Amino acid sequence: MAEQDAKAIHDGAGHRARLRQKLADSGGDALHDHELVEYLLALAIPRRDTKPLAKELLRTFGGIGGLMTADWQAIARVPGMGDTSVAAIKIVQATALRMLRNEVAARPVLGSWQALLDYLRADMAWLGVERVRVLHLNSRNMLIRDDHMGDGSIDQAAIYTREVIRRAIDFGSAALILVHNHPSGSPEPSRQDIDITRQIIDAGKRLGISVHDHIIIGAQGHVSLRAKGLL
Q1: Are 72 and 90 a contacting pair, CB within 8 Å?
Q2: Which residues, 6+ apart, have CB-to-CB distance to 42 below 8 Å?
Q3: E strands within 9-142?
Q4: What is the pLDDT of residues 44-67, one digit of tens each?
Q5: What is the mean pLDDT of residues 116-136?
Q6: Does 178 score more than 50 pLDDT?
Q7: pLDDT score at 220
């Protein structure tokens, strides 16, 4: 039994060395999704074959996007995942989001629209519940606050006109971009999405606060209500 264990450890070390060399020679694009997750987990669980666990995680969460955006408790429920291995996944997500958010914050938002969409998609596209956030901009359209208003259920999250405007006043915002996701994957707006956006626009006008857009994020893409002519 000891010989079998030693052989498994030796084989695993050799496999990881091959993955590491592939990464060094050709970059991350040379690795499959399960190999990226496998190698990441190997850093947290060095004496275990992490390939089966990596494949199970991707199956459970529907791919690497779903895995990275899943909450801590959901990942921890997968057999074989402890706090150290969950932390490895969440620190990668946090690092990626920090990098993308810094890109958004560095320039006027309206002039770096793709960077904004990349950030929002990474954070929200694969969430299992609806999340509402409001991006607060100053008079130069620089991001001054990325305000996470709250999470809801699988198909609904509350957004209140009075609360959005109150917070805009508190932050001294000149303009807003409303954002939420659709866990169904389709970013097509509902009648309720359109109505609440128009209510917030009307309330903001009276106080000199503009609403540039309402962006809906889904795994299948995004929709800008402004671009669709709905505002």
Answers
A1: yes
A2: 12, 16, 48, 50
A3: 131-137
A4: 998 889 999 999 999 999 999 899
A5: 92
A6: yes
A7: 92
In 34-155 the beta strands, taken as DSSP E runs, fall at 131-137, 143-151
Q: What is the dihedral of CA 161, 165, 171, 176, to 10 degrees?
A: 80
Q: Which residues contact 31 (CB under 8 A, 6 or more apart)?
A: 19, 22, 23, 39
Which residues, other chains included, contact 167 with Cβ-Cβ below 8 Å and sequence gap of 6+?
134, 136, 147, 173
CA distance 184 to 18: 38
Residue 3: pLDDT band with limits 50, 70, 90? very low
CB within 8 A of 88, min separation 6: which ones? 40, 41, 43, 44
Spatial separation of the C-alpha atoms in residues 172 and 221, rounded to whole Å: 31
**Nearest alpha carbon to residue 124 among 88, 91, 145, 149:** 149
